[in-house]
Design goal:
The complex is a heterotrimer. By secondary structure, chain B is mostly helical. Helices cover about 80% and strands about 0% of the residues of chain B. Classes of the chains: A mainly alpha, B mainly alpha, C alpha/beta.
C-alpha cells in the first residue's frame, strides 16, 4: 500500500501497531516503523494525528538504537571470548567454524 | 587467475561496452529491451550451432567446421532481428517515449548490435574465466602469461565488431547494398577463423589483424551512420 | 580487391591449419598439472592437535628445491617472493629444520613437500623417543627420552606429535618428483633476486582439516545437538582386534548367557602382538619391522602349536588353552589392549554374540607379549619382576634356542625391571603391576620406526616365491633354499623357539620332534603384507573363488570406523585358516555356520575347517565412558580429523607486477572508454551531421 495516500487515522493506527509489535523482541519492526513513518511525522504539514505519530516514531527509534547497541556489544563480547569460553560458547552457537578453535 | 587479473581482464573486455551501455542505453527502457532481445537471438544462434556441432559427431574435433556454421547462424539471426525490428517499427513508434529511436534507424541497429556483441563477448570470455578459477596463470605447459589479457582484448574487439556489423548490415539491407552484406559476413568469418590461430600462440598476429579489421569496420559503420571526414574534423576541433 | 584475394588466401590457409591443429583443449589443463602424493593429516588427543592442515582454500607456495641445508637459509633469511614450498629430501627432513620452518611462519613457508629421494637418508623416524609414553607405566625407568641408551626409539624426532601450521605432502613417485623439479628449474631456479618480478612455479595443496584443538572439543562438537549442518569434525581411531584360540572353545548355552555370568575354570596362555602401525602420511607406511615381524611370529607360533599339540583332552591339565590376540591401534596409546583389559575387567569379553564363556583375569595364566624384534640376536625377555614363571619360561626358551639339535644358535637374555618396552603388556601392567606379563622384545635397532620407510627394504625381504605348500611343517634341516640370515629364516627360528617353549609349558614334556616352523609361510606372509594382497596365503585363507586382493599391501593404520580395516580382515582370515582343524567329512553345503568355515586352502579346491577366530572391538574406552575426563590420561583419546580431499597441483603463480599491470590496464581502459563515450554521446549531432536534424542522435 502507498502509505502517504492512506487517511491520517489509518496512519496513526499502523504506526501504533508497529510500535507495540516491536515489543515482541522484534527490533526490525521498530526500525521499519521509523523509516516508514518518518516522512509523516516530521516532513508533512501538521495534521491532528501527527504529534502522536511523532511520539511513536521517536520511541521506535530509541528502541532500535538500544537494540543495535546491545547487539553490537554482545557480538563483540561473544566473538572475542568464544574460544576462551570453550564448551559454553559451543552450546550457544549454531555454526561452529571448521578447522579452528 | 587471481582476483586482480580477473578484474583487469573484465575491465578491459567489458569496460567500453559498459560505458556505451551507461551513456546510450540505460536511460531508455525501449533500448534495454531491444538490447536484451538481440542478446536472446544471439543465444538462439549459439544453440543452433551447438546442436549442429553435437549432431555432426565425426566433425566435432574440427573446430573450423563449427566456427563456419556458427558464423552463418549468427548472420542469419542478425537478418531475423533486422526483419523483426523493421516490421515492429510502427508499434515501437507508438510506445516509445523518446522518438529518436524510431526517427533514426541507425539507433536500433546500434542497440541490437551491441546486444549481440555483449552476449557473444561474454560467452567468449566467461568460458575462459570459469576455467581459470584458482591461483594460477597461463604458462606452465604452454601459452604465455598474456593469455588472459589477449582473451579480454579479443572479446572487446568482437563486441565492437558486432556493433559495427549490425549498423552496416541493417543499412545494407535497407539499401540493398549486397557488397556491404558480403563484407559483414566475410569479415565475421575471417575474424572468427583467425582466432583458430591462437592455438599455435600467434597472439600478436591475430590480435593485430583483429584490431585492424575492427578499425576498418568501425570506419565503414561511421560512414554508414552518416559520419564524414568533415564532421569528424569538426568534432575534433570542437566546433 | 587485392585485399580480398589476400584474405581468401589466408582464409584457405587457415581452414587447412584449423583442420590440422586447432583442437578443443581446456584451458585449465594447460594451466594446472595434478601431483599425486600422500598428505599429512590432523590427529587429536585429549589435550592437543597434531599433524597438518592446509588453509580452507588450499595452501599455495612457490616451489624451492632443497639439496643441501644451506638452501634452507635462502628461504628462512628473507625470501624474495614468499610464501615458498620447500621440497625436502628425507635426510633433511629433521626436527631442527622442520621447527625452523614452523618458526618462519605461514607467510613465508606455506607448504612443505617431502620428496622420495632416500639416497642420503640414514634414519627417518618421527615417533617419540618413548612411544606411547603417557599411556605406559608411569615410571622413569620405563623409558627415558633424554637417554638414548634406555629409550625405546632413540632415532625418533617426535615430529608425529607436532602441530604444523602448513600442509606436508609426501611425493613418492619419481615421475611426479621430476615434474616438480622440471618446473622448478624452468621457472624458479635462476636470478633469485627477480623472483618478485616474475611468474614462478608454485604448488597448491588442499588438505583442510575440520577438527581443531583437541579430541574433547571436536567430539563435543560432533555430538552437539545444535550441529545443524550435521558436519562431523573428527572420528575416534577405531579398529578391530583379532583373537583366536588354539583349541576350539565350547559354545556356551543360551540360558547361561542370559541368566548369569558364565565363569569357567578355563586357563589361558595369552600370546599377543600388535596389529597396526603408524606413519605421518595417509595410506603410506607398512610398519614392516616395527610390527609386522611380531605379527608374523605370532601367526607362525599359532600355526606351529596347532600342528604340534596333542588334543586338548590329552593335556595334563585339559582346561588349558592358548589365546592369541592381535591388538589394533596400539600405536596410538594402546587402543586395542586398553579396550581388551577394559572388557575383560567388566566381564564383557568375548562379547555375547560370540556365544562363548567369558574370559576373566582369573582365567589368564600368563601373558606372552611379542614386541618389536628388530634384531633377533638381541632378544630379551622382559618382566617387571623375576618371578619363577619368568625364570622357567626363559630357561625353556633358551633350552630350544641354544639346543644343538635345532641349531638356532640364539641366546635370549632377560631383563626383570621397570624398563619395559612399549608394547601391549603395558596396558595390563598399568591395571595391575602384578599381572604375569612376559615380553619378548629386542634392543631397538629400527631407524625407520613408524615411518613411510619401514618397508620391505628395511627388513631386507626378498620374496622367495617357492610355490610350495606353506601349511606343511618341514624338518629342521630343510631350509627351503632360504639363506640362514634371511628374514624368513629368522622368523622361522624365533617362532619355533617360542612355539616349542609354549608346547613344553602346555604338555609338560620337552619337545623332541624335528618339525619346525615353515620359512615358506613367513615368505608368503611378508609377501602379502609388504608387497601385494593378491597372494597365495590370502587366497588360501579366503572363500574359494572370492575376489582377489588388491595388488598392493593392505593398509595397516588403525583408521576410523568405516575405514578400510584391511589388515584386521586379512589377519582374521589368516589366523582362522592357520588355527583351524580340517573337517574332511563335512561337505561344503553344511560348512556355512561359524565356527565351521569354508576356505579355499593352499591348492584352491576348498576345505571345511573348524575355526576359532573372532573380532573384538578396538575402540578406546574413553569414547564409551560418559563424562570421561579427557585430560586424565587413563585411556587413549586419539581421534582423526575429517577432511574432504587431498589434492595438489602445480601451476604458474603470476607475479605481483603482472597482476598489478593487468589490473591497471583494465582500469585505464575503463576510465578512458567512459570519457570517450561521454564525449561522443554528448556531441553526436556534430559527428553524424549528414543526417536530418531529427535523426542526428545516434548516441542520444
Amino acid at each position: 500500500m502507498d502509505f502517504s495516500k492512506a487517511p491520517n487515522p489509518r496512519k496513526l493506527q499502523l504506526c501504533r501497531t508497529y510500535f507495540y509489535a516491536g515489543f515482541a523482541l522484534l527490533p526490525f519492526v521498530w526500525a521499519i516503523n521509523v523509516c516508514w513513518c518518518f516522512e509523516e511525522a516530521f516532513r508533512k504539514p501538521p495534521f491532528p494525528e501527527q504529534s502522536q505519530i511523532k511520539r511513536f516514531v521517536i520511541y521506535s527509534a530509541v528502541g532500535t538504537l538500544l537494540w543495535i547497541v546491545a547487539l553490537i556489544a554482545w557480538i563483540i563480547i561473544f566473538q572475542t571470548n568464544r574460544t576462551a569460553w570453550g564448551a559454553t560458547a559451543d552450546y550457544m552457537s549454531f555454526m561452529i567454524p571448521l578447522g579452528s578453535a | 587467475m587471481t582476483l586482480p587479473e580477473f578484474f583487469g581482464c573484465t575491465f578491459i573486455a567489458f569496460g567500453p561496452p559498459f560505458a556505451l551501455f551507461v551513456f546510450t542505453i540505460a536511460n531508455d527502457p525501449l533500448r534495454i529491451i531491444i538490447l536484451i532481445a538481440a542478446a536472446f537471438f544471439w543465444l538462439l544462434s549459439l544453440l543452433l550451432s551447438s546442436l549442429l556441432w553435437f549432431a555432426m559427431i565425426p566433425l566435432r574435433d574440427v573446430l573450423a567446421f563449427g566456427v563456419f556454421f556458427s558464423v552463418v547462424f549468427q548472420e542469419c539471426f542478425r537478418y531475423i532481428i533486422y526483419r523483426i525490428l523493421r516490421s515492429t517499427e510502427q508499434g515501437l513508434q507508438a510506445v516509445a517515449e523518446d522518438t529518436r529511436v524510431t526517427d533514426n534507424k541507425h539507433i536500433l541497429s546500434y542497440v541490437s548490435g551491441l546486444g549481440f556483441g555483449i552476449i557473444s563477448g561474454m560467452f567468449a570470455l566467461v568460458n575462459v574465466l570459469a576455467d581459470m578459477s584458482g591461483p594460477g596463470t597461463m604458462g606452465l605447459q604452454s601459452g604465455t602469461e598474456l593469455f588472459f589479457v589477449t582473451s579480454a582484448a579479443q572479446a572487446l574487439s568482437i563486441i565492437l565488431l558486432h556493433t559495427f556489423w549490425s549498423v552496416i548490415f541493417f543499412n545494407a539491407c535497407d539499401t540493398n547494398n549486397y557488397l556491404h552484406i558480403a563484407y559483414v559476413v566475410g569479415s565475421h568469418l575471417f575474424v572468427s577463423l583467425l582466432t583458430l590461430l591462437n592455438a599455435s600462440e600467434l597472439y600478436t598476429a591475430t590480435l593485430l589483424t583483429n584490431y585492424i579489421i575492427t578499425i576498418l569496420t568501425g570506419l565503414l559503420a561511421f560512414r554508414v551512420a552518416g559520419g564524414t571526414s568533415r564532421s569528424f574534423k569538426k568534432f575534433v576541433t570542437c566546433q | 580487391m587485392e585485399k580480398r584475394v589476400h584474405a581468401a588466401a589466408i582464409w584457405l590457409l587457415m581452414l587447412l591449419h584449423g583442420a590440422a591443429f586447432a583442437q578443443g583443449e581446456r584451458t585449465r589443463d594447460k594451466m594446472y598439472q595434478p601431483i599425486v602424493g600422500a598428505g599429512c593429516f590432523r590427529r587429536l588427543n585429549g589435550t592437543h592437535q597434531t599433524g597438518c592442515s592446509s588453509t580452507h582454500a588450499g595452501s599455495v607456495g612457490v616451489l624451492h628445491l632443497i639439496n643441501v641445508e644451506a638452501d634452507l637459509e635462502f628461504l628462512l633469511a628473507s625470501p624474495p617472493s614468499p610464501p615458498y614450498a620447500p621440497m625436502i629430501p628425507p635426510h633433511l627432513f629433521t626436527r631442527r629444520n622442520l621447527l625452523r620452518l614452523i618458526e618462519a611462519g605461514p607467510s613465508n613457508i606455506s607448504v612443505v613437500l617431502l620428496i622420495n629421494k632416500p639416497e642420503k637418508m640414514k634414519q627417518f623416524s618421527h615417533e617419540l623417543n618413548c612411544p606411547n609414553q603417557y599411556s605406559s607405566l608411569n615410571n622413569s625407568e620405563t623409558c627415558d627420552a633424554s637417554n638414548p641408551a634406555t629409550s625405546w626409539n632413540p632415532w625418533g624426532t617426535g615430529l608425529l606429535h607436532e602441530d604444523f601450521p602448513f600442509p606436508i605432502y609426501y611425493i613418492a613417485d619419481t615421475e611426479e618428483i621430476s615434474k616438480l623439479e622440471k618446473c622448478f628449474l624452468k621457472f624458479n631456479n635462476f636470478n633469485y633476486e627477480t623472483h618478485a618480478l616474475r611468474s614462478l612455479c608454485a604448488i597448491e595443496v588442499k588438505s583442510f582439516m575440520s577438527a581443531a584443538v583437541s579430541s574433547e572439543v571436536c567430539i563435543r562438537r560432533t555430538r552437539f545437538i545444535n550441529n545443524l549442518s550435521g558436519s562431523k569434525y573428527c572420528d575416534p581411531l577405531e579398529g578391530r582386534n583379532v583373537y583366536a584360540t588354539v583349541y576350539p572353545r565350547n559354545v556356551s548355552s543360551v540360558e547361561a548367557e542370559e541368566t548369569e555370568l558364565a565363569i569357567t575354570s578355563e586357563k589361558f596362555i595369552l600370546v599377543t602382538c600388535r596389529l597396526d602401525t603408524a606413519s605421518m602420511f595417509d595410506g603410506v607406511g607398512l610398519g614392516a619391522m616395527d610390527s609386522l615381524v611380531g605379527l608374523s611370529i605370532l601367526t607362525q607360533v599359532a600355526h606351529l602349536l596347532r600342528e604340534l599339540l596333542p588334543p586338548q583332552s590329552s593335556l595334563p591339565d585339559n582346561r588349558r588353552n592358548v589365546l592369541f590376540v592381535t591388538f589394533n591401534g596400539e600405536s596410538y596409546d594402546y587402543i586395542g589392549s586398553q579396550r581388551f583389559v577394559y572388557d575383560v575387567e567388566r566381564f564383557a569379553f568375548p562379547k555375547s554374540s560370540a556365544r562363548r564363556n567369558l574370559i576373566t583375569f582369573d582365567n589368564i595364566e600368563f601373558m606372552l607379549d611379542i614386541g618389536t624384534l628388530d634384531d633377533i640376536a638381541n632378544i630379551k625377555l622382559h618382566a617387571l619382576s623375576g618371578t619363577p614363571l619368568a625364570q622357567k619360561l626363559l630357561q625353556q626358551l633358551n633350552n630350544y634356542a641354544q639346543s644343538p639339535r635345532y641349531g638356532f644358535n640364539l641366546n635370549i637374555q632377560s631383563e626383570m625391571s621397570y624398563h619395559i618396552p612399549p608394547t601391549s603388556a603395558q596396558s595390563f601392567l598399568r591395571r595391575d603391576p602384578k599381572f604375569p606379563a612376559l615380553i619378548l622384545n629386542a634392543k631397538p635397532a629400527n631407524k625407520y620406526y613408524h615411518s613411510i620407510y619401514d618397508d620391505a627394504d628395511n627388513v631386507v625381504f626378498n620374496y622367495g616365491n617357492t610355490s610350495q605348500d606353506f601349511t606343511l611343517l618341514p624338518d629342521v634341516g630343510d631350509t627351503k633354499n632360504f639363506k640362514a640370515d634371511s628374514l624368513q629364516m629368522k622368523v622361522r627360528n624365533v617362532s619355533s623357539i617360542v612355539a616349542m617353549a609354549l608346547y613344553e609349558t602346555l604338555t609338560g614334556k620337552e619337545y623332541t620332534g624335528s618339525k619346525v616352523a615353515n620359512p615358506v609361510l613367513a615368505d608368503e606372509f611378508f609377501y602379502c603384507f609388504l608387497l601385494s594382497a593378491d597372494c597365495p596365503l590370502f587366497k588360501a585363507a579366503s572363500y574359494p573363488g572370492s575376489p582377489k586382493g588388491l595388488p598392493m599391501p593392505p593398509m595397516r593404520y588403525v583408521s576410523v570406523l568405516g575405514g578400510p580395516q584391511e589388515s584386521s580382515g586379512w589377519t582374521y582370515r589368516v589366523l582362522g585358516y592357520l588355527l583351524s582343524q580340517k573337517q574332511p567329512k563335512i561337505p561344503k553345503d553344511n560348512c556355512t555356520i561359524l565356527p565351521l568355515h569354508y576356505f579355499a586352502g593352499f591348492n584352491g579346491v576348498g576345505e571345511c575347517r573348524l575355526t576359532t577366530q573372532n573380532y573384538s572391538s578396538a575402540l578406546s574406552p574413553a569414547f564409551l565412558i560418559d563424562d570421561y575426563d579427557w585430560r586424565s590420561g587413563n585411556y587413549s583419546t586419539w581421534t582423526e580429523s575429517t577432511w574432504s580431499l587431498f589434492s595438489a597441483r602445480i601451476f604458474l603463480r603470476p607475479s605481483n607486477v603482472h597482476q598489478v599491470t593487468t589490473l591497471s590496464v583494465g582500469i585505464v581502459v575503463l576510465i578512458v572508454s567512459f570519457c570517450v563515450v561521454y564525449i561522443i554521446s554528448s556531441r553526436s549531432e556534430v559527428l553524424f551531421e549528414d543526417l536530418p536534424a531529427s535523426n542526428a542522435a545516434l548516441f542520444g
